Amino acid sequence: MFLNFIQQVTSVLNDAVRSAGFEVNDLELGPSQHADLSSRVAFRLASVAKQSPKDVADRIASEVVIPEGSYIGKVEALGPYLNISASRSFIDAIVSGIREKKESFGGNFCEGRILLEHTSANPNGPLHVGHIRNSIIGDTLGRILKRAGYNVELHYYVNDMGRQIAIVSWALEHFEFDESSKPDHAIADVYIKANAELETHPEKVAEIDRLMQLVESGDEETIERFDKAVGLAVAGIKETLGKMNVSHDEFPKESSFIRSGDVSRIVDEIKATGRTEIDNGALVVDLLDYGFEKTLVIQRSDGTSLYTTRDLAYHEWKGERADRIIDIFGADHKLISGQLKATLNAIGKKEPEFVIFEFVSLPEGSMSTRRGKFISADELFDQVKVRALEEVDKRRPEMPDDFKKQVADMVGIGAVRYDIVKVSPEKSTVFDWKEALDFEKQGGPFVQYSHARACSILRKAKDEGLWDSEAIIAPSLLVEDTEIALIKKMGMFDNVLDQCAKELKPHMLAIYGRELADAFNQFYRFVSVLNAEEEDVRASRLALVDCARIVLANTLDTLGMGAPESM
């Protein structure tokens, strides 16, 4: 709804600017403490008008004409700013819109096809805590883009032929595989043993090199060995992703771009630019004019390709199938992602958009799969669920065990997802389950509890014969400050989605969810709902509770979190 408000403001202000004798491309609209929206356009026009920004703002405000029934209540100059306040029509339209659109409220204002890649961890062991920020950022961003209206396809790009996979394949031939363990954990066990063996006996590294050459040349037996190793690890990884409420549409493999000939073809395309040279036997790309002093290696001296080479072919393939390509990469990929983008630009291919995130860690420290120093995501989720169950049991001891477990699972995973995604990607973060599961703080459980509270209010009202969800209500009766604040906050949902989609920053939705929950709780704290004396006022306030339930549920769903009806 707020996007419609912005459209109307833009139209009215542009007309007023022209009537005042100016032309401008950007009204510089933004939030304000004094109104629902504010424009800084007077600053931009002051030098042209040879007047102070305040005089320009007054001049534009005097030309404003607000159409009848507009979402705009008034436009007034306050010093150099143009402050825009919403009308009663806008307030009423938000309530009516939520009640009409329900689960679809706030979305479907964009179009286009997007291929979004996230997680893509090497299949040499289970996902650990260091991986899950990629998964949660990527999945949440995918959900945001889908709700905004985009046709989104989510990819997990599988490294099925690199050195690490060669080591895993070799390890399966030399060490016992624990069939009783989750397969990705069993893969990590033999991978760790293999690395220790290779460090002790470096002459055996030649066997790994040979495997890599064989798989790239198309040797069927070696390919089958690699596929077996990768399949075991990916099966376990998919199970872990499912625990996080994360799913992918496709799992394209690196090797497919070798077998299709796409890698050879893109190497030839890069050569044709005149940017390549031989450096110590390897084929490298000169990207100095793009600001990269370090060359990009695209072919080893033995003629085999690298992950980067295959990634270039994969991105070329993606670019032919989507309007936008988005990759979620860790900060350790910052250089290579820039080189990847520059190389694609040099051969005239569609360039990806990147979300580069800093890493998440535990108080215990950093992690390495190769050396066996990691805390798996499975261990983290099991621990969080146990802690969440203790919290639910403490709060609802009278409830049956199946209820407690269901809520604990929902709250536990929700707490992890919220705590990870609430921090802007470019900032590092430490995950502390005690903080994440604190019901008293404004984290994931707080947002979920607000939804459960709304459900509880409506359930009680229905039991007492006070609530009919189909009854016609009068939004105009909702006039209290906390009622208006809650309605406006709900109306912001589409605008927040739009900002997240444009800036690729899902943490803004987490912040919005917390603010929405807070606005709902403030409303319920200061306004009588079930005990309202006038029947029509009570009905309107119950409808407002239902609207809050809907928008909270939509927000939680977009964050990949469950929306419990009772906690």
UniProtKB/TrEMBL annotation:
It catalyses: tRNA(Arg) + L-arginine + ATP = L-arginyl-tRNA(Arg) + AMP + diphosphate. It is found in: Cytoplasm. Residues 7-86 form the Arginyl tRNA synthetase N-terminal domain. Keywords: Aminoacyl-tRNA synthetase, ATP-binding, Cytoplasm, Ligase, Nucleotide-binding, Protein biosynthesis. Residues 447-567 form the DALR anticodon binding domain. A motif ('HIGH' region) lies at residues 121-131. InterPro entries: aa-tRNA-synth_I_CS (IPR001412), Arg-tRNA-ligase (IPR001278), Arg-tRNA-synth_N (IPR005148), Arg-tRNA-synth_N_sf (IPR036695), ArgRS_core (IPR035684), DALR_anticod-bd (IPR008909), Rossmann-like_a/b/a_fold (IPR014729), tRNAsynth_Ia_anticodon-bd (IPR009080). GO terms for biological process: arginyl-tRNA aminoacylation. It is an enzyme of class 6 (ligase). Gene3D superfamilies: Arginyl tRNA synthetase N-terminal domain (3.30.1360.70), HUPs (3.40.50.620), Isoleucyl-tRNA Synthetase, Domain 1 (1.10.730.10). GO terms for molecular function: arginine-tRNA ligase activity; ATP binding. Its EC number is 6.1.1.19. GO terms for cellular component: cytoplasm. Its main location: cytoplasm. NCBIfam families: argS. Belongs to the class-I aminoacyl-tRNA synthetase family. PANTHER family: ARGININE--TRNA LIGASE, CYTOPLASMIC, ARGINYL-TRNA SYNTHETASE. HAMAP family: Arg_tRNA_synth. This is Arginine--tRNA ligase.
